[in-house]
Amino acid sequence: MTEQANRCYRLRRRPRDAMIGEADLEFVEEAAPTIGAGQALVRTLMLSVDPTNRPWMADVRSYIAPVAIDAVMRGIGIGEVVESRREDMHAGDLVYGFTGWQDYAVADDAINELPFSVLPSPLPAPLSAFLGVLGHTGVTAYLGVEDIGRPQAGETMVVSGAAGAVGSVAGQLGKARGARVVGIAGSDEKCRHVIEDLGFDACINYKAPDWAERFDAATPDGIDVDFENVGGAVMDHILGRLNIGARIVLCGMISMYADYGSPAGWEGQFEIAQVLLQRATVRGFIVLDHPERFPEAIGHVAGLMGEGRLTYRETLVDGLENARDALNRLFRGENTGKMVVNVAAPLNATAPQAATTVVAGT
Amino acid sequence: MTEQANRCYRLRRRPRDAMIGEADLEFVEEAAPTIGAGQALVRTLMLSVDPTNRPWMADVRSYIAPVAIDAVMRGIGIGEVVESRREDMHAGDLVYGFTGWQDYAVADDAINELPFSVLPSPLPAPLSAFLGVLGHTGVTAYLGVEDIGRPQAGETMVVSGAAGAVGSVAGQLGKARGARVVGIAGSDEKCRHVIEDLGFDACINYKAPDWAERFDAATPDGIDVDFENVGGAVMDHILGRLNIGARIVLCGMISMYADYGSPAGWEGQFEIAQVLLQRATVRGFIVLDHPERFPEAIGHVAGLMGEGRLTYRETLVDGLENARDALNRLFRGENTGKMVVNVAAPLNATAPQAATTVVAGT
Fold first, then answer.
1. Closest by Cβ to B253, choosing from A250, A266, A276
2. A100: left (phi over 0), alpha (psi -120 to 50) or beta
3. B283 CB near a chain A CB, below 8 Å?
């Protein structure tokens, strides 16, 4: 094929401030890679923007090595195979994997941090769903609820980041298990969506001055399960209302991620002693540890969607050139549901349009 | 019986400083209680001094109500029945329970927070052992190691407060399971004791300027189990060395207890995100939840003692009038092993003398 331009983001330094800029993550244009035997060339169609992208840029001890300085930014995406010298991939296949923040990626199990997987054809749901509710964020919610939190009928489950990609699904899974589910989100409009569209029993805007009183009133019987996506002061308040034997699903701590590398350091937790005093369990997990659970999890979520018991929202940002801004917007809480970047339309593949997509203004 | 004087400590206000004084916990002399039908009068022989005594005095949400202002200080002790109007207790019986910090207690299941239990006669071990290695602190160590930490051969287990009543037993239980056990304690002499007398593989004095480097060198393969008695900065350092799937036995957070009620508040944990990133589990527990496990636990510990695989030290403070000081000394780290206050000698019962008791100077 003729030489293509490859637009990509390269990490020039580890971010020091809450918002990242061109000096941290530079947007450059290069020649697209060429492939050898056993490789396929993948054109990125859609990028997943996740809270964990931020710690990937920082020099903190994590579940995966930090992105190297001057390397292309790591990212999960969906792409279309445009050229293949692999037996298991053909031009037009839609694939899921670590595309990186770039137009063209090389699919090669020997070098990719996560092997690319081929999506079903024809695609049964919109492309973006496979990065969200039917992708890693949906599976994350499923594993946290079903393996760790296990809320029972009559119990109270709290979900922070309730309007986000993981929290929105986690809360609906909690409802499906019969629990009372109380969300925490960052605006009245998000709370309205969480209650009216997603069916949570209550949702509290943690930016309201009287949020703690409202939250306490919404959890009159205490808290049995905390599906924790945020950490920090809000989590401390939750810890102060745990019931004996509570389970804390430690899924994310987004309140700290943007402070990794900042001179002031990051926020602490001051109420961990409540885990002891209430005989609670805190358990961390990483969805990428469990590729074998994806079919089970996606089947469960898709089943509830088919029954009309689970729905989702997403926030679409158009253009790879806006990916860095999309990540900053995620950290400012400007997304509802899954944040995705639309990079290109498929050339040969087809996918249903998403009915629920909100196209974000720029 | 003739009226007896009852020396006791009454909580006059919630402590505000690290060290407690007469204005917090007043030592007074009153008339001893008299008993009615279904009650027994217990003369306190020995009092257990435990880190948890301190949060009992504070107005924090805990596993038990705070001691009420002007009430007698709550405490676990061993006493001798001096008068009984209960079928199940007779004069001369040695009993274990919430004697309180006083000379005379009333044993009455309807009013005691913990029912008194009668110890075996003749007593197979020194009195003090039933407050420590064969009492609630030994059972605490057993439950934490066997139910939560479960260190395996080849794994590394870390124990903070390694020279204390619980940590000393926990580490030896870890050794018996085949783990490499590394202690953390507050003096070189304690570390010597922990290694030479208790058989830990290593022990690091956290007050040494280079303690972190030494600790890292002593845990070259990372940490699989943290038996946590301390919390705070030392725990944060431990969290930074967790292996994937590590278990944190959240047994105590003594570094914070003395700050409950202080104007500055207490220390936070800054590395809880490592629990997520290393897919670790933190689990809290309270020994008083598990009275049914005492025989199993004590049997296990006594079995290891009989085989010469588990030993203990204790620090004895003489005189009820020195109990408050004993608690302050516990928080200054001046004990090795179980801290007990010797209140009185038995009148009718007999118990073996402890060979390993260190009588603390005043």
1. A276
2. left
3. yes
Q: From the CA of A262, how many Å to the nearest CA of chain B?
A: 14
For residue A248, give both structure tokens. 């804390």
**Chain A contact for B51, CB < 8 A?**
no
Q: Do domains A5-131+312-359 and A136-306 have the same CATH topology?
A: no
Specify the higher pLDDT residue, B122 or A273.
Answer: A273
Nearest Cβ partner of A61 from B240, B266, B268? Answer: B240
For residue B55, what is the enclosing H or E element? helix B53-57
Report which of B263, B310, B330, B359 is spatially closest to residue B14, judged by C-alpha positions: B263
Chain B interface includes A252 (CB < 8 A): yes
pLDDT single digits (tens) A165-175: 999 999 999 99
B282 to A275: CB separation less than 8 angstroms, yes or no:
yes
Spell out the domain ranges in chain A: 5-131+312-359, 136-306
**ipTM for this prediction:** 0.94
- CATH, range B5-132+313-359: 3.90.180.10
Task: Read off the tokens for A106.
Answer: 């090389």
A274 in B contact zone (CB under 8 Å): yes
A340 — contact with chain B (CB < 8 Å)?
no
* CB contact A61 to B (< 8 Å): yes
What are the pLDDT tens digits along chain B (362 aa)? 456 899 999 999 999 999 999 999 999 999 999 999 999 999 999 999 999 999 999 999 999 999 999 999 999 999 999 999 999 999 999 999 999 999 999 999 999 999 999 999 888 899 999 999 999 999 999 999 999 999 999 999 999 999 999 999 999 999 999 999 999 999 999 999 999 999 999 999 999 999 999 999 999 999 999 999 999 999 999 999 999 999 999 999 999 999 988 888 888 999 999 999 999 999 999 999 999 999 999 999 999 999 999 999 999 999 999 999 999 999 999 999 999 999 999 887 777 765 455 544 43
User: Contacts of residue A244 in chain B, CB cutoff 8 Å?
Assistant: 63
- Angle between helix axes B136-143 and B294-306 (nearest 10 degrees) is 90
According to DSSP, the β-strands at A77-84 and B338-342 are unpaired
Q: Tokens 């492939």 belong to which residue?
A: A35
Query: Per residue in A291-327, pLDDT tens?
Result: 999 999 999 999 999 999 999 999 999 999 999 999 9
Residue where the block lists tokens 């960052």: A186
CATH code of the region A5-131+312-359: 3.90.180.10
> What is the number of CB-based contacts under 8 A between chain A and chain B?
98
The position carrying tokens 């060979």 is B355
Contact B276 A240 (CB under 8 A): no
Q: Whose CA is closest to A276, among B253, B292, B142? A: B253
Find the length of chain A.
362
A144 touches A285 (CB < 8 A): yes
Q: Is A140 on the interface with B (CB under 8 A)?
A: no
The CATH homologous superfamily for domain B136-306 is: NAD(P)-binding Rossmann-like Domain (3.40.50.720)
Say whether B251 and A276 touch across the interface (CB within 8 A): yes
Alpha-carbon gap: B57 to the closest alpha carbon of chain A (Å): 15
